Predict the 3D structure of the following.
Amino acid sequence: MNAYEPKTPEEPVLLAVGLVKQFAGRRVVDGVGLSCQAGQVLGVLGANGAGKTTTLRMCYGFLQPDAGTIRIAGTDRRADPETASRRVGVCTQDDTFDNDFTVRGNLEQVSRYFRLRPTARAGRIGALLERFGLDRYANDKPEILSGGYRRRLMLARALVHEPRLLFLDEPTTGLDPQARLEVWELIDTLRRDGLGIVLTTHYMEEAERLSDELLVLREGRTVAAGQSPTVLGDL
């Protein structure tokens, strides 16, 4: 069985229902629901301030929803947050790796956080460095990497513990066109591996290129949802 595959084909790797989040008395997310299967990219499209990032932060556990439920590969996030967190990988908008460590060292630190067995750690890190084209930079500090390779390191770090679900928050913002295409190709390969992927974007082209299903948010509410070509055709 693929490492990313859920226990049953019918069980989504992400199922969120009725998510609500308020800040200073204002609902920034108002009743949003989303579902993602293994081997599927769910795009969340919307302008800045639409509630995309807040929705993702609730799903991966950075924020607690004021209402609603979140299940990760069959595990209720509120009831068993530790198990749910081990099943997700997160790649945020901003680079959050540690420049005090080398590229390899950043992956090693994450592997220790998730308590990978020492016998498996070196092989897993070596495979990720090769897969993401980072092996030539393994002993360098991340500060020397280009924007595209920084994104590669963020992706590799999010996958160290072999999660079933990957959250990508505006993964290509600020990249040049060539680096953007390379990140798109990496996302395609992860989808083919059977990983469930939820990505936010405000680029229509990116949503069309990557998403199997699409959710469109406006002012914290869902305004359209369904298969990507249908949704984009109605916008």
Summary: DSSP finds eight helices and ten strands in the chain. The two ends are 39 Å apart (CA to CA).
